[in-house]
Every structure is written in structure tokens, then in C-alpha cells.
Amino acid sequence: MTDALNISSDNFATFVGRMSPLLDERERRLFAGSLANMLGRGGLKRVSELTGMSRVTVLKGQAESEDLLCDPKLYRKGAESESVRQAGAGRKSITERAPGILEAIRALLDGHVVGNPENPLCWTTKSTYTLSKLLQEQGVKLSPNTVGKLLKDDGFSLQQNRKYVEKGEHSVDRDGQFRFINDLVSRFIANADPVISVDTKKKELVGNYKNNGKEYRPKQTPRMVNAHDFEGEGGKAAPYGIYDIAANEGFVNVGISADTAEFAAFSIKRWWEEMGKTRYPEARRLMITADGGGSNSSRGRLWKVELQKLANELGLDIYMSHFPPGTSKWNKIEHRLFAQISRNWRGKPLETLEVIVSLIGSTTTNSGLVVKCALDDKFYEKGIKVSDDEMKSINIERCEWRGDWNYIIRPQSLKS
User: Fold this and answer.
1) What is the DSSP letter of 85?
2) How far apart are CA 402 and CA 399, in angstroms?
3) Residue 116's closest CA among 151, 155, 145, 69?
4) Model confidence over 205-243: pLDDT tens digits?
5) Is the Cβ–Cβ distance between 84 and 27 less than 8 Å?
6) Which residues contact 274 (CB under 8 A, 6 or more apart)?
7) Which residues pair with 122 in a beta bridge?
8) What DSSP element (H or E) covers 8?
9) DSSP 8-state symbol, 205
10) Which has the closest alpha carbon to 318: 254, 282, 268, 279?
């Protein structure tokens, strides 16, 4: 739209913002009208949004500016006949005339607002027409358009629903768990203690199979891959990742067997031996954040048994925090490590385990991500049962807040 003025949208907005305070009321109207005329189609809406003027005012400015082109003498006549209001004069905004209006709208939205754990943006499922009607029942007359403008200024927008809301009794504590994890992570990092985010990446077929994405190759020479995605002799690779949140470092243990709790714990042990103990030689405790399911399930007995073995071997108190159901995408490893790995090997068939290890190990980012990778050819047995006696022997301390999600496992030598 700003092509007519040959300037970018950002520069145009800056220009309008700087000019408006230098003009009086009538000059601003003429300025806005002239801009709208120059911009052509859509100019009225654009200028109204930038200046905060109503469309009626901009329309009036458009008509006046057109008249001035025909007879410039009209500018002086208009200035002499029209009094200019002082700054601050004129009709007050709705929030000035009714100071409690925003609170009234927010109260009506209570129970109809959803917040994102990483972004405090809100969205409402009630329409502006419904809100306008409810406000009228309380004696406040506001048009739906005015309600919509107030909501927009207050950080709301009307959006479609999205399939991500978790079900079950635990969903009500989701935000509380995010606050708990954030506070504990902050304390650990401030004390220079290690904090890692862990998870198993999607299992990958090993062989000449199609891998999503594109890579640069000589023109019209695409890489030829198998026409089917049936598992072949190469089997599947299970990359278990460990991401050091403070150091921006990752370690991936590529397994060829089952994704079990034993595999997950051994992967963390390898990270500690390869990277962790060198970076944190004075550490006495380790914090782990993980999903609530899979090999590191919050309800898994074997996971706690394996964490006990890990605590004994490393001599560390292990602080374990699980993300609530349905919120795995907020686990740091997902976008800090796994997304970067997928970007690095996009379009490349994962022909062998060696290729997978090499591609993962060569992953980096502009922010300085460092990744190490190793192949794990051990066999991990599935379906191992844990007895009640084994569970009782675990040196576990459950936190006051959601002890099923947050707990500490200390070396058994420290058990009283």
C-alpha cells in the first residue's frame, strides 16, 4: 500500500507518528486526509489505524484536502473561521469517562480466557456482541465495535480453538507447574548447578528413505529414495536427547533397541560422563525436566528405580520435574535441540547409523549450540516389572507442590 510513497510500512508509520504531534487539530485532519488520498484504496483504514482518528474524521480531511487543491485560499478562510481546540480538549476516551470499564469487561471474560505458559497473550471466546449485551444489562452502553477496540487495546483477540487442551484432573494445575519449574530452574542456574531438559526424539527409519525437507543439489538431480517407508534391515534409530539449558549444549544417545527407562537413564549418564562433569565439577545436585509420559513417565516405577541407580552412580541429588499432560512442546529440548537437528538433516536420507550420528553431531546454530552424539548398541529389555519392595527402597522425597510431578531422589547412601 505504501508503494505509492515509495517507503516501507515501518518508515511510513514512524513518519506519521512524528508529524502528528507537530500539528494542530485542523492540520492533523488535513494531513490525515491528504495521506489517505495519496495511498488510494485502503488508505482510509490504514491512516485511521496509524493516527487513532475515526474514519469519519479522516473522510472529512479527505474532502477538505481535495477542496484545497482546487482553491488554496480555502485554507486561510478555514483557519479563520474554525477555532482550534487546546491540547487535551475534546471528547474524552471511554476509559477516561468510565474508568472501571476495562475491569467490567475482564470480569465478564473470567472463565472464558486461556493463557499460554510462555506468552501472556490472551484470547476470548465470547463475541463483542455478547459482551456489549451483557454490559448493557449492567447499565453500561457500549457498541460491539467499541468493545472490540477496548479488547484489542487490552491484548485480546478473537481466535479459533486449537486441539491442544489436555483433559483430566491434573490440567487445572498446569500453570502452577510451569511457575514451579521456572522458579526452580532459575535458582539452579543462579547457583551454577546443572539443569537439563530430556526427551526421546521421534524414531527414525535407517536406510534410503524419504526425509522431509529440501536441500540444494544440481538442477534436476533429486536424490532418489525408496518408494515405500516400510522398515527394512536397517531398523529404526531412537535418539535420546539431553539439553543443557544454561550452557546451550546438547548430547544425543542414538539407541537401536527399545526406548525404555533404562535407556533414558543410561543416556543421561553418558551425557554426564561426556560433558556434564567437566562443565560442573563442583555440582552436588542435578535438575531434570521431562515430559510426563514415555520412557521417563511421571508414573513409571522403572523410571524412578533407574533414577535411583543414576543418583547412586553420579553421587548427585536428582531433582525431577515433569511437564503436565499435553504440554510437551514447552520442554526446552523440543525447540532448542530437536528442531535444530531436524533442520540440519532435512532432505537427507538417513542411510546408516553413522550418517545419523554425524548429522546430529554437526548440528549448530547462530546462537552457538554445541551437540555431541554417540551410538548406543546395547539391548534394552521391555516389560520389566518393579516390586513394591524395590519402590520402598528408593530414597525419594516428594515436593509439597504436586509431589507426583516433582520429587528429589538422593543417593541411597544418604538414606536415613
Assistant:
1) P
2) 7
3) 155
4) 777 645 665 554 565 555 655 555 555 666 889 999 999
5) no
6) 251, 372, 374
7) 115, 156
8) none
9) E
10) 268
* Closest among 274, 280, 301 to 376, alpha carbons compared: 274
Q: Encode pLDDT of 55-105 as tens digits.
A: 888 888 888 877 777 766 655 554 545 555 555 555 666 666 666 777 777
Q: Are 259 and 294 in contact (CB under 8 A)?
A: yes
C-alpha to C-alpha distance for 366 and 251, rounded to whole angstroms: 18
Please state at what angle helix 301-314 crosses helix 261-271, rounded to 10 degrees: 20
> In degrees rounded to 5, what are phi and psi of residue 191?
-95, 10
- Domain 173-414 sits in CATH at 3.30.420.10
Q: Write down the residue that cell numbers 551454577 correspond to.
A: 192
Name the nearest CA neighbour of 185 among 122, 261, 245: 245
Collect all residues with Cβ–Cβ distance below 8 Å to 335 and sequence separation of at least 6.
Answer: 329
pTM of the shown model: 0.58
Coil, strand, or helix at residue 371?
A: strand
